[in-house]
């Protein structure tokens, strides 16, 4: 019964009483997949308790809701490019974008179950996680709450319960290293991020594949690991240049590390590219404005953001993705930081 003293129950009230997001309640109401049996039963109980019935009259067009994007940090151009793509993708579908940052430094950055529950409680229809580690418990919590999940550049291996979006990192590593080999370099250093990073290992494997194909032995002391920041690029370059037989070229696994390596080489009086060739990865804005401009592997960062946004909204509509692991093509951009070795 409805009236002034008994207002009509709303879907938001159903979601709040059931302890789920409004999107999950809507999925149950419309018989869509992506909701656990226990959650489905709970929502149906609340619908019956509140006497909720959907309006059958004309409805005004409502926004789809908000997609929550979580970054490990947002201090570099990589994150800004991805965020720009996500915002464009959600806006095209009539949804909003909400952003938060973990803010922790180091290789292991995790959302935590409490953060995921808070995101679901706000009624956000989807979660996009960027370059952050996901635990099995966190994935299960998203499933239980009906929170649609997509990961961009996953740090740790993920199974088919999670849809991920990334780039062809292995192929990009091959492209960067092959370019240096074609110029005549045979001692090529590699600067990578945390050893456990999935996309970092893919770039390393591409580097090794190109060396092996060219008949060049991959020497362990020519690969240095750290974080994806300029400080790591500088310290890694220092370690490589201090070798008794230093490399004539360095492939850094992102542009920021390449810029750090460039600064370290300059501080030693080395000329780029005459004395040391450098290749980065990402092709962010800063790559074209270094001195000299940086040769790099272009990663389609904005497109990755758009694809992730479109995918999470399709999941919210109950659609099944064509692929659980999407990889977009990379391409080498040759600028002035690479040249044949100075013999």
Automatic annotation (TrEMBL):
Protein name: LacI family DNA-binding transcriptional regulator
This protein's record includes keyword DNA-binding: yes
Residue ranges annotated for the HTH lacI-type domain, each copy included: 9-63
Protein's UniProt keywords contain Transcription: yes
GO molecular function, one term: transcription cis-regulatory region binding
InterPro entries: HTH_LacI, LacI/GalR-like_sensor, Lambda_DNA-bd_dom_sf, Peripla_BP_I
SUPFAM superfamilies per the UniProt record, alphabetical: lambda repressor-like DNA-binding domains, Periplasmic binding protein-like I
Alphabetic keyword roster: DNA-binding, Transcription, Transcription regulation
């Amino acid at each position: 019964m409805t009236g002034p003293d008994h207002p009509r129950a709303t879907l938001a009230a159903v979601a709040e009483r059931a302890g789920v997001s409004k999107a999950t309640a809507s999925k149950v109401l419309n018989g869509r997949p992506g909701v656990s049996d226990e959650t489905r039963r709970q929502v149906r109980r609340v619908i019956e308790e509140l006497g909720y019935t959907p309006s059958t009259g004309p409805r005004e067009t409502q926004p789809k809701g908000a997609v929550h994007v979580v970054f490990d940090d947002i201090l570099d151009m990589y994150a800004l490019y991805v965020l720009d793509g996500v915002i464009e993708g959600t806006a095209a579908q009539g949804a909003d974008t909400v952003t938060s940052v973990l803010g922790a430094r180091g290789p292991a950055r995790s959302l935590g179950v409490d953060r995921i529950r808070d995101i679901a409680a706000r009624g956000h229809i989807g979660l996009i996680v960027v370059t952050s580690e996901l635990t099995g418990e966190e994935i299960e919590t998203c499933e239980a709450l009906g929170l649609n999940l997509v990961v961009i550049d996953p740090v740790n291996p993920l199974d088919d319960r999670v849809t991920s979006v990334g780039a062809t990192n292995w192929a990009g590593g091959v492209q960067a290293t092959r370019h240096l080999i074609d110029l005549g370099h045979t001692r090529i250093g590699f600067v990578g991020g945390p050893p456990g990073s999935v996309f970092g290992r893919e770039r390393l494997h591409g580097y090794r594949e190109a060396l092996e194909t060219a008949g060049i032995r991959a020497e362990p002391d020519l690969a240095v690991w750290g974080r994806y920041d300029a400080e790591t690029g500088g310290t890694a370059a220092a370690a490589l240049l201090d070798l008794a037989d230093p490399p004539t070229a360095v492939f850094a696994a992102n542009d920021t590390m390449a810029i750090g390596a460039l600064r370290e080489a300059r501080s030693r009086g080395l000329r780029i590219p005459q004395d040391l060739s450098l290749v980065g990865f990402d092709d962010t804005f800063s790559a074209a404005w270094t001195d000299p401009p940086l040769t790099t592997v272009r990663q389609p960062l904005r497109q990755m953001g758009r694809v992730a946004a479109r995918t999470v909204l399709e999941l919210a509509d109950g659609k099944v993705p064509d692929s659980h692991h999407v990889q977009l093509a990379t391409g080498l951009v040759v600028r002035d930081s690479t040249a044949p070795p100075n013999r």
